[in-house]
Amino acid sequence: MRKSDGYYVLDLLPESDGFAVADRRVAVSDWDLVGFRGSLLRCCEDVLGATLISEAWLHHLPDQLADSGERLMACALAYARDHDVSHILNGRCFAWEEEVESNDTISPQQKALVIASAARWAVLWSSRGHGLNADY
User: Fold this and answer.
1) pLDDT tens for residues 3-35?
2) CA-based nearest residue to 24, from 93, 91, 110, 107
3) What are the b/e assignments for 99-125, b being 16+ CB within 10 Å?
4) Which of 2, 43, 95, 121 has the smallest C-beta neighbourhood within 10 Å, fewest atoms?
5) 3-class SS at 18?
6) CA distance 64 to 111
7) What is the pTM of this model?
């Protein structure tokens, strides 16, 4: 316990699909650590389409979140297969040096990773009975 003094509990936990934020350093609250920033999906609009991306800003019941996660993973799998980056799908999101401004500024690996990470996050939390409370 003495070694853990001064740490937040969430900082002590191992990496998990429930911690799908791109960069823990930008988190300002515990909600940021367990949430998923829907704005990350904007860089994947060419893969997901406007309809699926817009769902990131809607409230979801657990079954709706599970469905969204499954559709996101289907997109991630198809995109990764088409771009020969399937090996990246089980990775974790990572920080970018700067804000992504368009679909063309990130690599296929990053797009596949963002989409798969969002999908795994949705599936994990929905399987525990949680929905999505969109926060703007």
Assistant:
1) 767 666 666 666 767 665 444 444 444 445 566
2) 93
3) ebeeeeebeebbbbbbbbbbbbbbbbb
4) 2
5) coil
6) 23
7) 0.76
